[in-house]
Amino acid sequence: MKLLKPALVCFALMTLLCGILYTAAITGAAQLFFPSQANGSILTVTLKDGTRKEYGSELIAQEFTKSQYLIGRQTGVSNLSPTSDEQKKLVQERIDWWHSFDPGNTADIPADLVTASGSGVDPNISPEAAEYQAARIAAARNITVDEVKRVIQTYTSGRFLGVIGEPAVNVLKVNLALDGLL
What is the Cα–Cα distance from 52 to 69, expressed in whole angstroms? Predict the structure, then answer.
């Protein structure tokens, strides 16, 4: 009984400090300094009638499967070895899907369109993967390939500090722009 009171006081104090005060401080700082990111980086668009509509997070992949849209990476986490038979089978299934989805496209399919990202929710694809789809999107929307490429270029980010990472195209932003919402 002698040790129970100090243990309970310590438990209550640590709960207050770590569970409530620290959490409130970090949440408050995030809201103050990074409000968009703290709230999920949600893309909100003001429509012609003045209403605002949320379309999803620019940081989490959205699934698009119609021919008039840019299609992103496969969703779902994959930690399969690149040399595993299961991974080879999945990649071949995705290659077959792309060939049936866009039979007129005989170009090599970029790797990021047939592999999943480590997180399974990557919102970006490579500029090569976006360009691979430009002709199909243009035909489905009855616009020129150059118009599609201009939209893709607008929503392509470069390397961080010019050297870190790879250029990336945000799939959701491109699709919203193609729909005339951005």
Answer: 22
DSSP letters spanning 72-123:
-PBPS-----TTSHHHHHHHHHHHHHHHHHSTT--SPPPGGGTSB-SSS---
CB atoms within 10 A of CB 38: 15
Instruction: Using DSSP, state whether 157 is helix, strand or coil.
Output: strand
Q: Pairing relation of β-strands 156-157 and 124-125? A: unpaired
Cβ–Cβ under 8 Å, residues 167 and 126: yes
**pLDDT tens for residues 59-105?**
888 889 899 999 998 877 677 777 888 888 988 999 999 999 999 89
pTM greater than 0.85 (yes/no): no
Look at phi and psi of residue 76 and say left if phi exceeds 0, alpha if psi is from -120 to 50, else beta.
left
Angle, CA 123 vertex, CA 67 and CA 79 arms, to 5°: 105
Token pair recorded at residue 77: 């986490």
What is the 8-class DSSP label of residue 52? E
End-to-end CA distance of the chain: give it in Å, rounded. Answer: 66
